[in-house]
Design brief:
about 140 residues; mainly alpha; 3 strands; globular
Length: about 140
């Protein structure tokens, strides 16, 4: 199988520690983190992805907002430059250990966080990155 991810979730995965919008959301996210850690491929998508799925049944899910699409664009640009490969809808990639380590180093240094500006999870992610990613569900 393949995990479908929007671009900014490549950044969110780095600091995901089990916090989220609801129990269903975090249970789903835990499964996705395990699948990626096990080596499953990721397909970049435009719009809501497998992480968004538990939120889509609610009233006015934020997953469709322009601010979230902007976050995707900024994250795609940053990750593409860092990993030196395209991060666009349709691309299939595998986040190897070395990729995750490079991303985490750049994230902690603030080099790939333009997409995070204004995000409600910004402070938590900063704390997790500052702790050396202690408790992150996606292993380095």
């Amino acid at each position: 199988m393949t995990v479908r991810l929007r671009a900014h979730h490549l950044l969110c995965l780095l600091t995901y520690v089990g916090e989220g919008y609801s129990r269903a959301f975090t249970a789903n996210y835990d499964v996705i983190a395990k699948r990626i850690a096990a080596g499953e491929d990721i397909r970049i998508v435009a719009g809501p992805d497998d992480i968004c799925a538990p939120l889509l049944g609610g009233p006015q899910p934020h997953c469709h907002r322009e601010s979230v699409r902007k976050r995707d664009r900024l994250a795609a640009e940053a990750v593409a430059a860092l990993l030196r490969r395209p991060i666009v809808p349709g691309v299939l990639l595998k986040l190897e250990k070395a990729d995750r380590q490079r991303m985490r180093t750049a994230f902690a240094a603030g080099q790939i966080r333009a997409a995070c500006k204004g995000c409600q999870w910004h402070a938590l992610c900063s704390e997790i990155a500052g702790s050396g990613y202690d408790g992150a569900r996606l292993p380095s």
